[in-house]
Design brief:
Methane Monooxygenase Hydroxylase, Chain G, domain 1; 233 residues
Amino acid sequence: MSDKHLSSQFDSELTGVSNRVMKMGGLVEAQIRTAVQALSQFSVELADQVTATESQVNAMEVEIDHDLSSIIARRQPTARDLRLLIAISKATANLERAGDEADKIARMVKSIIESGASRALPASDLRVAADLASSLLRKSLDAFARLDANIALTILKEDNAIDREFDGFVRKLITYMMEDPRTISPSLDLLFLAKAIERIGDHAKNIAEFTIYIVKGEDVRHTPLAQIESVIR
């Protein structure tokens, strides 16, 4: 079998795995959007839709990891291709965890509904942070699909906006709890939701970092932003 034929087969397998990652990413994006809608509308039905998708996302992660292990064992990829395969595996794991956070949001929404907690609390304020997190995940998948380090860099910068929203929301919840101790329990539920949203943004950021790793061959995790910018330039 010619080297050209082997290379063609390898490229085809990579394309197949990458397409499944994008499909998985689409499912997770839908989970997040539905979870946010469930929170906004206090809807048990929408929360149940999120939970129902969770098993499908988990199954896709297992299938993709199996295919990646098979490719590595059979193809013995070069350094750059191996970086790509490792990054795909890590990105898939982060997508699965983002889906887990969406499922946590859905389950907490159901718990809040069932407890009859007051809707006077600022649950709607979470929508801004949730929309930012969902947008960030969508952009990170686009950067990953295009192997675009510049888009990945903008995602690392935008993650700070979610952190600021989270900090502001925590301050608001503390005010509610100080003014009315009866709001402490539902406020803690909302804090749990806010933390889940923040983690979705973190997973989007991680995928962006893996994109830079593939393109530049540099591991930029835990690296100052200014240093990452110099790597990309």
